[in-house]
């Protein structure tokens, strides 16, 4: 009887020890994962040179450009007790593939930073270090030389043209993370186009209506800054002109020229500025139309100066400055009145370097190819002023 009691006492005494040992072997609780913010919306550039893609910064001699950075967080509800690997995927309409070697300046829309505090990232997985409770992933968004404004990219809710980056968590490859595969949490970044589209149209009927009749008139469209041609549109014949200016171009004064190349009638012309990322002029509107009037005395062609080097042709008859815009980040707060020169729409035999500046090889690949089909409402202004 005594022996039996001894064994019973030993068993009872050892039981808590055994149970405690089993408890120590239980796996620690896993961390839950979440995006504190699931979406964001930004302009393609911040209105500065730095926002251009590095390839374009080099090609345009802007120096080192990095794009603009947008960061988003992934939170864990407790510090990770071990390293974790999480599979992810990228979708959306924006591209992170750089078509290297193209001749038209095409670049990728964005890239992901490959590392940050507490994590590294490759094409398929995020590796998060032990002890981390939150990581912040950086998306590098790049300004480019393409006007990406088509009906397919138009978003009615925001009245803008957008591309998207969708970052989706797929599964846990390894590590102490509690993840519901069915939910697949995701973060969406919307990038809206912010360039300024410029069109020049004209009418020879004198009716002033919406049905423009170009007649036999041929006008051209130039924009330049500090003596260098930034962009131009010189369609042959009576086709209207259009072009655009990237929002990442430097803050500066940009001069507009609307030379009357050929024709036999007086024309009313309409210069329309549509800023997809900011405003134009003192009206603080996204789009403004300025009007002017040419007589046949303003007709003036230009001729090539054969002494110009190939790719840097010189022309006689520089376009007159008809109006100027002052750029500040994403907007053009100051736009001068349209000034019509007496007589010619060009400056006599003055020689100017046009069309093929050293930056032209990369510059503004789409011109009017992807011109906007849906415009915000614009304000019409009759800013015709005779030059003294």
Overall description:
By secondary structure, this protein is mainly β. It has helices at 2-24, 54-59; strands at residues 31-34, 39-43, 68-76, 84-91, 110-112, 115-116, 119-121, 125-128, 134-141, 154-155, 160-174, 177-178, 186-192, 196-203, 218-219, 221-225, 228-233, 241-245, 253-257, 260-262, 267-275, 287-294, 303-309, 312-319, 323-328, 331-335, 338-340, 346-353, 379-382, 384-386. The model is unreliable at 1-22, 305-314 and 347-388 (pLDDT under 50). The radius of gyration is 31 Å and the shape is elongated. It folds into 2 domains: 31-192, Immunoglobulin-like, CATH 2.60.40; 196-386, no CATH class. Strands 2, 4, 6, 7, 8, 10, 11 and 13 form an 8-stranded mixed sheet that branches.
Write a concise synopsis of the structure shown.
The chain is mainly beta.
**Distance between the ends:** 128 Å
Separate helix tally: 2
How many runs of DSSP E, i.e. beta strands? 30
Overall pLDDT level: 81
Main pleated-sheet profile: 8 strands, mixed
The total number of structural domains is 2
Strand residue percentage: 35-45%
> What shape does the CA trace take?
elongated
What is the CA-atom radius of gyration, in angstroms?
A: 31 Å
What is the helix fraction of residues, given as a range? Answer: under 10%
- What class would the helix/strand composition place it in? mainly beta
């Amino acid at each position: 009887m005594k022996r039996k009691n001894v064994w019973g006492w030993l068993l009872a005494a050892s039981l808590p020890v055994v149970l405690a040992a089993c408890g120590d072997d239980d796996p620690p609780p896993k961390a839950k994962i979440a995006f504190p913010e699931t979406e964001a919306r930004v302009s393609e550039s911040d209105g500065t040179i730095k926002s251009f893609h590095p390839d374009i910064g080099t090609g345009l001699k802007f120096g080192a450009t990095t794009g603009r950075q947008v960061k988003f967080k992934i939170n864990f509800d407790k510090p990770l007790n071990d390293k974790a690997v999480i599979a992810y995927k990228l979708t959306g309409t924006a591209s992170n593939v750089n078509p290297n070697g193209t001749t038209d300046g095409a670049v990728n829309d964005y890239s992901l930073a490959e590392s940050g505090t507490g994590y590294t990232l490759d094409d398929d997985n995020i590796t998060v270090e032990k002890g981390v409770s939150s990581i912040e992933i950086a998306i590098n968004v790049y300004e480019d030389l393409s006007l990406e404004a088509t009906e397919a990219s138009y978003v009615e809710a925001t009245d803008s043209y957008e591309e998207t980056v969708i970052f989706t968590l797929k599964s846990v490859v390894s590590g102490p993370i509690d993840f519901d595969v069915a939910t697949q949490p995701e973060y969406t970044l919307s990038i809206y186009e912010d360039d300024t589209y410029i069109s020049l149209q004209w009418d020879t009927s004198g009716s002033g209506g919406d049905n423009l009749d170009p007649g036999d008139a041929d006008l051209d469209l130039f924009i330049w800054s500090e003596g260098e041609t930034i962009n131009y549109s010189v369609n042959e014949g009576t086709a209207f002109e259009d072009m655009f200016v990237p929002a990442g171009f430097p803050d500066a004064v940009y001069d507009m020229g609307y030379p009357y190349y050929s024709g036999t009638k007086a024309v009313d012309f309409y210069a329309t500025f549509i800023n997809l990322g900011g405003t134009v002029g003192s009206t603080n509107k996204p789009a403004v139309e300025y009007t002017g009037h040419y007589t046949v005395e303003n007709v003036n062609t230009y001729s090539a100066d054969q002494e110009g080097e190939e790719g840097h042709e010189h022309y006689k008859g520089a376009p007159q400055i008809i109006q100027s815009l002052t750029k500040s980040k994403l907007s053009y707060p100051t736009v001068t009145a349209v000034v019509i020169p007496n007589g010619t729409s060009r400056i006599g035999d003055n020689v100017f370097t046009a069309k093929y500046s050293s930056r032209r090889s990369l510059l503004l690949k789409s011109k009017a190819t992807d011109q906007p089909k849906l415009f915000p409402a614009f304000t019409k202004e009759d800013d015709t002023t005779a030059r003294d």
